[in-house]
Amino acid sequence: MSKKLEKNGLWESSRMMLPQHREALLNRHRDVPHVAPSRPKREEIELMRDYILLPVMHTLVSKKMREMEASSETLKLLYAKVAQILAQSIYMDLSKIKQEMMEKEIRMSDEEKDDSMIHCRYVCRGYEDGFTITKEAMRAEISVRLRRYTDQLMAKLR
After folding, report:
1. How far is the C-alpha of 133 from the C-alpha of 41, rounded, in Å?
2. pLDDT tens digits, residue range 79-132?
């Protein structure tokens, strides 16, 4: 390797960087206050949980809607329309959550699923960690949330 690229090759090998530019860049890095990554707040954890739960809820409602449309139920059109409205409401909430996560610099990655739980990794403002949701807890939470969505829909109809 060339002698120019030894040690800190970024500065030594750069023919376009003037010493003044190098100093300005180093000073800029020194002036920026380094904020230590902090643990996510409760509402940020809830956002991440919603980010995991809402797609599952949307899939569940959409699947039930298709099943209802194919059934021989007398009121299948009514049930299918209600399910469609619920799915749209869930999708709109999911879009809001994704936007909020982008604004708060929260990224989710490495979702691993097994028979009894889902493991998720996240980065929240530089803080990296993960959490696990059991499928049993997901079922209970989805049931509560679907009831809430249904109550909201019924309140709009009244």
Report:
1. 18
2. 899 999 999 999 999 999 999 999 998 999 867 888 889 899 999 888 899 999
- 3-state SS, one letter per residue, for 20-88: HHHHHHHHHHHHCCCCCCCCCCHHHHHHHHHHHHHHHHHHHHHHHHHHHHHCCCCCHHHHHHHHHHHHH
CA dihedral over 133, 135, 137, 140, signed as positive or negative: positive
Beta-ladder partners of 134: 117
DSSP class of 121: E
As to burial, measured by CB atoms within 10 angstroms (0-12 exposed, 13-18 middle, 19+ buried), residue 85 is middle
